[in-house]
Design goal:
Layout lengths: L6 E5 L3 H13 L3 E5 L2 H11 L3 E5 L7 H11 L7 E5 L4 H9 L4 E4 L4 H40 L9 H18 L3 E8 L2 H8 L1 H18 L6 E6 L2 E7 L3 H18 L14 E8 L7 H17 L5 E3 L4 E2 H5 L3
Parallel strand pairs: 1-2, 1-3, 3-4, 4-5, 9-10
Antiparallel strand pairs: 6-8, 6-9, 7-8, 10-11
Helix pairs in contact: 2-3, 7-8
């Protein structure tokens, strides 16, 4: 079975030995990279990424064992095969070579036939390494995709409950450090069960997607977050947003939703799909928790529904968007 050509780095201070090695390797169909000393070998190893290293033991300055140790330290995983070539014989030398990071130890002079046999064995190792690297990359990409899926709602593409909770904890800590206001809103699509019953679940899913896009598009700043809290309920996390800014934001959302004119076939509120929302705002201190802010936003949402739906109610201002529009 034909195996692919290897890039072989030959490290030897003797020019004649490098030429002989080059001739033998090229006759076997391999590509050759020559280095005359350890420093050059380390540089070429990092930039050229050879498949195999043929490394002389006896060199001036740093010997082959030192070079092998530093090659291994420069490569995560230690995948690249290193074959020592030496005129030194004996078990102690072979032991030193293996301890330094070598995979094989050949005594000079080495015949082309023997070198070819060793490289065929190394080719199989290189092939296995490449397959493992490919599988590792596939696994990395799959895990990255799973991480994305674990933090995003499949229907709307918004952040899911887990991501909302994580982001809210982070922003409470950040706004506490900055001494800045943080607003949180919980929103419900009004009478969504009646929408599903009248229009069907497919239309209901499409309506949720439209609402999700509206909320996503309205998050213009990097730290703003829109998420699907569950079912027909959504959440907004708005750092650096005071009370007045949160109410202005809410009025803008309701205006944009009204302009979309998503028909609701069975809503007591009106002919179009509407939202009810609850807002809570604070400058976080040591007593502020994500759970507490969500509970206050949920209580404000309940008040918005009780006051007729199709509006946002501010927990702290005790005021809703409909009252503001009327100038009260």
């Amino acid at each position: 079975m034909a195996l692919e050509s290897l890039l072989v780095m030959v490290v030897d201070d003797d020019r004649l030995q490098r030429l002989l090695a080059r001739a033998a390797l090229q006759s076997l169909g391999h590509r050759v990279l020559e280095c005359s000393h350890g420093g050059e070998a380390l540089t070429q190893f990092s930039t050229q990424r050879p498949d195999v290293v043929l490394l002389d033991v006896e060199m001036p300055g740093h010997d082959g064992y030192w070079v092998a140790q530093h090659l291994r330290a420069a490569e995560q995983g230690g995948w690249t095969p290193i074959i020592f070539l030496s005129g030194l014989q004996g078990d102690d030398e072979i032991w030193r070579g293996i301890e330094a990071g070598g995979d094989d130890y050949l005594i000079k002079p080495v015949t082309t036939r023997l070198l070819g046999a060793k490289l065929r064995a190394m080719q199989r190792l290189v092939s296995m390494r490449k397959k493992l690297e490919e599988r590792s990359e596939e696994l990395r990409l799959a895990n990255a995709q799973l991480e994305i899926l674990s933090r995003h709602d499949a229907l709307t593409g918004l952040a899911n409950r887990r991501a909302i909770d994580t982001h809210l904890h982070q922003e409470i800590a950040a706004c506490r450090r900055e001494g800045q206001a943080l607003s949180v809103a919980l929103l419900d699509v009004d009478h969504f069960k009646r929408f599903n019953d009248a229009a069907g679940h497919l239309a209901g899913d499409q309506a949720l997607q439209q609402v999700g896009k509206l909320l996503s598009d309205a998050c213009l700043r990097p730290r703003d977050l829109a998420g699907r809290y569950g079912g027909e309920e959504f959440a907004l996390i708005l750092p650096l947003t005071p009370l007045s800014g949160a109410m202005t934001y809410a009025r803008g959302l309701l205006r944009l939703l009204a302009q979309m004119q998503i028909a609701h076939p069975d809503s007591p509120v009106g002919p179009w799909l509407t939202l009810s929302g609850g807002i809570t705002t604070c400058v976080p201190d040591d007593n502020t928790t994500a759970e507490g802010m969500l509970l206050r936003a949920d209580d404000a949402l309940y008040q918005a529904k009780a006051k007729g739906r199709g509006r946002f109610f501010s927990y702290e201002m005790k005021l809703d968007t409909a009252e503001q529009l009327l100038g009260r």
